[in-house]
Amino acid sequence: MKLPRIGQTLRLSLVHASEERNGQTFKTRVADLTEEHIVIELPISEATGRTGPFPAGTECNVWYIGDDGSRYEFRTVINGRQSENIPVLLIRKPEKTAVKRTQRRSYLRINTAVEIAVKTTDPVRRYHFLTRTINLSGGGISFTCEASYQLQVKDRLQVWMALPGKNGQVQHAYGVVEIVRCNPAEEKGLHQWISGKFVQISEADRAKIVRACYERQLDWRKKGVLD
Q1: What is the value of pTM for the model shown?
Q2: Residue 196, φ and ψ in degrees, nearest 5
Q3: Is there a contact between 84 and 103 (Cβ–Cβ < 8 Å)?
């Protein structure tokens, strides 16, 4: 299995956490890689926004989203702390065989309104329009659009997505979607509902979508929207 790269976002939880930190997820980033260690920035609690003590010997579970859109996990231990340019932690680099892929092609689907631009590939029915998603995952999307667009099952659509991220940053992703279901408008003047799966998408763009879905879900949990 592929180890995380420099700049990779990681999330970790403590194996033997105190009552105060039990159940908390900490977000960090890979600052450097050495022969024995993964060097990470000080982890920040996604519940409180604060860091905390991470003494040597602390065991933790680490997970991240790979470039293929899959989720990977491994268990490790904090071996120490350094404070050169910025304070960092040294966590033991796992053997590649110890990194487990825990999700593959089973993508988290969330209900979210993401701005998208859609263009048909059909040479006769040439449509190009803007809309918003109803739900989104690394495997596909659903959206609504005007009933005047004569879309059909198995049609292929080019889709450009503007994915909201942390601190108001927007990442862009592109994919080709094959329509698997068309639900007509229930009444005149209402929109039809289109659902499709990605049949062409780069793994880097799929990873952007997967990360956006997980970050949106974590944000909802912090706000108490999800259990």
Answers
A1: 0.55
A2: -150, 165
A3: no
Count Cα atoms within 13 angstroms, Cβ side, for 68: 12
Non-local (6+) Cβ contacts of 20 within 8 A are none
Q: How many CB atoms lie under 10 A from the CB of residue 159?
A: 22
The owner of tokens 């596909």 is 140
Amino acid at 51: T
Q: What is the pLDDT of residues 201-210, one digit of tens each?
A: 988 898 889 8
Q: Which residues pair with 150 in a beta bridge?
A: none
- Spans of all domains in the chain: 9-103, 110-222
Angle at 127 between CA 147 and CA 152, to 5 degrees: 55
Residues 83-137 have pLDDT tens digits of 877 889 999 999 988 998 876 555 778 888 999 999 998 888 999 999 999 999 9
User: Does the domain made of 9-103 have the CATH classification 3.30.70.20?
Assistant: no
Architecture of domain 110-222: Beta Barrel (2.40)
